[in-house]
Amino acid sequence: MDITIHTTFLPHDDADAALAFYRETLGFELRNDVENGGLRWLTVGPPGQPGTSIVLYPPGSDPGTTEDERRTVREMMAKGTFASIMLATDDLDATFEALQAAGVDVVQEPTDQFWGARDCAVRDPSGTMVRIQQR
Known about the structure:
The protein is of the alpha/beta class. It is built from three helices and eight strands. The strands form two sheets. The protein has a four-stranded mixed beta sheet, covered by helices on one side. It has a four-stranded mixed beta sheet with strand order 5-8-7-6, covered by helices on one side. A hairpin with a 5-residue loop joins strand 6 and strand 7. 20% of the residues are buried.
């Protein structure tokens, strides 16, 4: 088998804020911007990696989602417990300094983890945990 990661989905509660974070703060490129019924889906990805994308989507947009489920998702997003993603960089300290200068919500400064990785953690504007690991 030859399987790769093509697309992952992360929720947003403000499309413009999400786009600013992933495009302007992280340097990802916007690949698609789709609106339907007042809801907006954004596809972003790292430059030079056209086969890997993140779809930023409105949570609870599936017609089968109940209002109770939507409320639970919103509550979890607000706490930062609904979604997460791990990214990698060649220079964690420089990346962290740039993120800090951009005013992101810092959860953890660069730290040597017990499992052998060195990483940091921030939250995107929707509360998603974004961990960035030293490559």
